[in-house]
Design brief:
By secondary structure, the protein is an all-alpha fold. It has one domain. It is globular and about 70 Å long.
Length: about 350
């Protein structure tokens, strides 16, 4: 489901412009930074999904999702207040700034949430696609995919291929992290305060390590659920200062790669019902596309980008509630049936 929804969302986002700048709506720097760590986390998460008992996975996910949704809701509330103040200020300026003939003077320095100049879908597609960056992301994805060979679980080659994913992920992440760090340091030394990418944080070693840990955590959650880590990446991008439009587009773009890897890993572990998955993929593709369409229309009408944050927070909260109910029911049934509810051995359970 996540793979289908993210793929359709990416296709939709590629045909819409950046809300404030003449740049791609997908931040490829952040995508390259987080994608390898997410994919590494997915590998770990899929392995843990075999070992961890069902009740423990449920508890951990509920705690994480409730915390993430609460933080996102708080962020959305702050954005809503800022947008309200901005609207009032703009209304006041429209009432105040008029010339002697009563003609309205428009503040040309104001950057609207919705772009004024309309471009065709093909123009936006050409603007949003950066083929060199996409090729690098595809190379990382293919590298991880090649390391998911259908070999005997817990055999020698299995662990060799499993361990090879760590240097691949750390190498790509390290390259992009060093690039951001050097660019940030260079701009600071010259007094240039312009942001390197959409994030508004300073790219210090501490912040880079924080992003790496969050990427692995998001991937681990994605591996446990087969979700691609978007429930962590989306709020994280908002937390580091990325505007909602770009955060949503970048998160779904990265999720398209990471969730597809999760699908492959679950398939190799023989935990993948193909007919049911194909049905859900078709439904999620339609839901993802039309969901993006209606949300964009709603933002255009209300002129509030915080709508994206509230929707994200609501989806995460609903997921926590749903998983909580299902998890409790399943755990009670397992207790009544006297099923084993402890940790399993990874190799012995295959």
């Amino acid at each position: 489901m996540i793979m289908g929804a993210s793929a359709s969302s990416v296709w939709y986002n590629l045909r819409v412009p950046h809300p404030t700048k003449e740049v791609p709506i997908i931040d490829y720097d952040l995508a390259l930074l987080f994608q390898p760590m997410l994919m590494l986390g997915i590998t770990v998460g899929v392995a843990l999904s075999v070992v961890f008992p069902y009740w423990l996975i449920t508890v951990l996910i509920i705690i994480l999702f409730l915390g993430t949704s609460s933080r996102s809701f708080f962020k959305g509330t702050l954005m809503w207040k800022e947008e309200t103040l901005l609207k009032k200020e703009m209304a006041k300026q429209q009432e105040t700034f008029a010339n002697s003939r009563g003609e309205l003077l428009i503040d040309t320095d104001y950057v609207p949430l919705v772009p004024v100049e309309e471009k065709s879908s093909m123009q936006n597609l050409c603007m949003n696609l950066r083929w060199k960056r996409v090729l690098v992301l595809m190379t990382v994805w293919v590298s991880f995919l090649l390391l998911q060979n259908d070999v005997k679980v817990c055999g020698t080659w299995y662990w060799v291929l499993f361990c090879l994913q760590f240097p691949v992920a750390l190498g790509v992440f390290g390259y992009e992290a060093v690039k951001l760090y050097k660019d940030h340091k260079k701009r600071m030394s010259t007094g240039n305060t312009e942001k390197i990418c959409e994030a508004s944080i300073e790219w210090t070693a501490l912040h880079i390590i924080f992003c790496a840990l969050c990427g692995i955590l998001g991937g681990t959650v994605g591996g446990l659920l087969g979700s691609g880590g978007g429930f962590i990446l989306g709020p994280l991008l908002l937390e580091i200062g990325v505007i909602p439009h770009v955060a949503s587009a970048t998160a779904t773009f990265v999720m398209m790669f990471s969730s597809s890897l999760s699908v492959v890993e679950f398939y190799l572990l023989k935990r993948f019902p193909i007919p049911f998955a194909l049905y859900l993929t078709g439904v999620s593709v339609l839901a993802g596309f039309w969901g993006q369409y209606f949300v964009r229309k709603l933002i255009t009408i209300l002129r509030r980008a915080s709508i994206i944050v509230f929707i994200l927070s609501g989806v995460i909260f609903a997921s926590a509630l749903t998983m909580g109910v299902i998890g409790i029911e399943t755990s009670i049934r397992m207790i009544n049936n006297h099923e084993f509810m402890g940790f399993l051995g990874f190799c012995s359970s295959q």
